[in-house]
Amino acid sequence: MATEADEARGSVRARRSIAPLLLRLHFYAGILIAPFLVVAAVTGLLFVFTPQLDRLVYEDEFFADGRGQQRPLAEQVQAAVAAHPEGSAGSMILTGEDDRTTGVVFFVDALGEKQDTVYVDPYTSEIHGSLVTWWGSTPLQTWFDDLHRNLHLGDLGLHYSELAASWLWVVVLGGALLWLRRLRAGREGRGRAVRRALLPDLSARRGVRRTRGWHATTGLWLAAGLLILSVTGLTWSRYAGGHFGDLVDAVGGHAAELSTEVEQAPAGSGHHHDGTGGNATAVDLTAIDRVVATARDAGLDGPIEVGLPAEAGAAWTVTQTDKQWPVRFDAVAVDPTGQKITDRVDYADWPTPAKLTRLGINAHMGTLFGLANQILLAALAIGLLCVIVWGYRMWWQRRPTRADRTRPVGTPPARGAWRHLPPWALAVGVVVAAAVGWALPLLGLSLAAFLVIDLAAGPLTRARARLRGLPDQNRV
């Protein structure tokens, strides 16, 4: 009698828990959002190894032929300006590697947001070619980056990647909670439960149980990495990223801007330089060697980018660009003569939100930990694809096989799970869903669309069941 009572109480708790609602949400999100996740995973996998492809495709531009003593930086930038008179020289990229060319970045009105980077041999000042770049990214990298972000569809395509990132964390957390809750409910020792949570049940017969084991355990192993990708991807998305930026503004989480103002411009700072074009005509380019030397003396080692003054009398800028851990992003402003630092912003002084955002972006792009970071991202992409395939396979394996009830796929989890939730849980859920929907607009809109479709599908399903004389399996 006690056993029957315990089972009854367990049945009531199961009905009044959030698990059925999570199961239905996980099912529909997985079925409908998975295609977007597949595209994101495939395009991300293609993008992740672009640094290695760059070195192969752009070997002539990237690598120097000469050896010995390097030519002065002023001579190198002058050579680039002479070969590219139609642009405005904006910055100089120094990789810190002896066999690499020096990049001189030109702003060209016709290129819009892109730039033209001229590559100069530091040993001979010969030009190795030029590439249309996008803030340091080569044409190859930019093409794959655009493919991953917007499928080359412009602003319209941005919706796909934001939708995928918005739902990824929901699917991951929901699946993990469902799997761990299922194992906790089992009557077995803790050690065996942990093993079942982390390792697929290879002893299971072929079928949905075995597929579910691979789907769930692989997803659990990938969960932390996928959550990081979801969050970091959202930080620079179109709508959710805008809300994130507003939040960072509200808490003062941006790094301080480097000031290029100089109290009093030293004499000779407006020295004219023939044939330089753009803003370089009003800037003394011969100061660049002194600028870099001053920045190096101030501790800015490794790869750097030297920003030319926007106008005569303004300060030069030197910024570290080492995106690999331990990252280096210190920046200094140097007076027009190149002999004194007028302002400094160190990475150590950045607010925590700014640091976390920068590290998250670098990790998402595969640069934070070098090759290990790239391999991890590739493993996450391949693992996610496998989890999705197993999910669809389970849907197919759950299809009715009786001759009188054939269907191509399985029946969705029962509708109306939300009706069994306690009122307080339902109220909290509505508030949380509204807040999350505001913060992540595409998640909120698509969730609302799911609910409308689900409400409309209910009566249609019941009507079809009555016409066919079948029991209504979706009845609340």
Description:
It comes from Frankia nepalensis. InterPro entries: PepSY-ass_TM (IPR005625). The chain crosses the membrane at residues 21-49, 163-180, 214-236, 375-396, 417-436. Keywords: Membrane, Transmembrane, Transmembrane helix. This is PepSY domain-containing protein. The chain has two domains: 20-57 and 142-254 and 358-422; 59-137 and 258-350, no CATH class. Helix 2 (19-48) crosses helix 7 and helix 7 (158-184) packs across helix 9. The protein has an eight-stranded antiparallel sheet. It is 53% helix and 9% strand. It has 476 residues and is of the alpha+beta class. It has helices spanning 2-16, 19-48, 50-57, 59-62, 73-83, 139-150, 158-184, 190-198, 208-235, 240-250, 288-297, 352-365, 370-397, 423-439, 441-468; strands spanning 88-94, 102-107, 115-120, 127-133, 304-307, 316-320, 331-334, 341-345. A hairpin with a 7-residue loop joins strand 2 (102-107) and strand 3. The protein contains 15 helices and eight strands.
